[in-house]
Design goal:
Length: about 280
């Protein structure tokens, strides 16, 4: 039976260890048992899994992960959390807690420590750094099976949407190139302590063995995508010709679009992932 079952138990642990929630680390602790259980179920955590948790905080999710997974590696930036985690995780010998900044952690090394298991990321992410974390996980080349994370609702919608929506952007295309996203559930601010000022959602990204579109140079495709959305109200021709990362002459962009049967006056925000891939191959 989990020690941190009930909001009261988490609040008591936080008080006893003099933990104050730090805004700069995006600390909003999840205190709702049913949401914690739903995250573990959505990730399908089992004995065959090595779960990497980013930002365990005082450990409510970590403890549940330890109960279901073969192994858990939890990476926490805030040293103040470590004594609370040691208390909660005593009795679980399948968890390693690393006190580090996830953005400076080599995930290949973490993955290789536990060979032969399915690698999954499960986390209630710090919202100030969600996009860099998710993007670097996806682009790392580490073979994750899935990434199940709590993020701001608006960010979850950006990950899942396509052309025609104001939420569509570079994050949508990166997520959809590497994975199939599915929003699992929306979570109200009352499920956290302290309450965040925004709505939250749990989203699962099931990573592809092979991307759904083929492109000869995916790094160039993502530079083109970033340049297109940096000036999203401009035509693709104008957005790409002045961007120092790509500098594609307007005539070259127009010719490529024409050969794709697309108006040369189109904006990047109207192109699908398949079209960005085709365009990249044509201008390379
Ligand atoms: N998992 C806990 C829960 O669900 O209650 C805490 C989640 S809280 C939203 C985010 C956690 O990420 C905090 O514990 C915070 O200290 C940690 N964190 C923030 N930035 C981090 C970073 N760069 N690397 C590792 N952990 C980080």
């Amino acid at each position: 039976m989990a020690k941190l079952r009930s909001k009261g138990a988490t609040m008591d642990l936080v008080r006893r260890h003099n933990i104050t929630a730090k805004k700069k680390f995006g600390q909003n602790f999840l205190t709702d048992d049913s949401v914690l259980d739903e995250i573990v179920a959505a990730a399908g955590v089992c004995e065959d899994d090595h779960v990497i948790e980013i930002g365990p905080g005082p450990g409510a999710l970590t403890e549940r992960l330890a109960e279901h997974a073969g192994h858990v590696t939890a990476i926490e930036i805030d040293a103040q959390m470590i004594p609370a985690l040691e208390e909660i995780l005593s009795g679980h010998d399948n968890v390693e807690v690393i006190c580090a900044d996830v953005m400076k952690t080599d995930m290949h090394v973490i993955a290789e420590k536990i060979p032969g298991k399915n690698l999954k990321v499960v986390a209630n992410l710090p919202y100030y750094i969600t996009t860099p974390i998710v993007t670097s996980l996806l682009e790392s080349g580490v073979k994750y099976k899935s990434i199940t994370v709590m993020v701001q609702t608006e960010v979850a919608q950006r990950m899942q949407t396509g052309p025609g929506s104001k939420d569509y952007g570079a994050l949508s295309l990166a997520v959809q190139y590497y994975s199939k996203p599915e929003i699992i559930t929306d979570v109200p601010p009352e499920s956290f302590f302290p309450m965040p000022g925004v709505g939250s959602s749990v989203i699962r990204l099931d990573l592809y063995e092979k991307p759904p579109v083929s492109v000869s140079d995916d790094a160039l495709m993502f530079r083109i995508i970033k340049a297109s959305f940096m000036q999203r109200r401009k035509t693709l021709q104008n957005a790409l010709k002045n961007n120092p990362d790509v500098r594609i002459p307007a005539e070259k962009t127009a010719a490529a679009l024409e050969s794709m049967g697309v108006s040369p006056m189109i904006r990047g925000e109207a192109l699908t992932l398949e079209q960005f891939a085709r365009f990249t191959d044509l201008v390379k």
